[in-house]
Write a structure and sequence with these properties.
Order of helices and strands: EHEEEEEH
Number of helices: 2
Radius of gyration: 13 Å
Structural class: alpha+beta
Helix content: 10-25%
Strand order of the largest sheet: 1-6-5-4-3-2
Number of strands: 6
Strand content: 35-45%
Length: 105
Amino acid sequence: MQKRTVDVPVDPERASTAFAQFLHFEGAVGGRLRTAAGAWRGTVSDWDPAKSVSFTWHPDRDPQTADHVTVTFTPVSGGTRLDLTATGDDWQDMLDLYAEEVQRR
């Protein structure tokens, strides 16, 4: 199990919306996460906007081998802290890219 954290300078609602856009997913339980080209790479299993999201993650592999990911969005001074817990893939690079994208908006 991995735990990763990143802070972004926006409120939790904007942080969660940006996260959904960053991973190209439909913000609803059962919604699919897709690549920009449309390939399926996961499914939303729990979504509480501005608070948390959980999903499976299986880019370029069998969905039966999917990792499970949960992200919480917590207000902190100056923005939002994302706490990510995942089985499998290392998410630090992905979180860093997300934080850079949020700061550019």
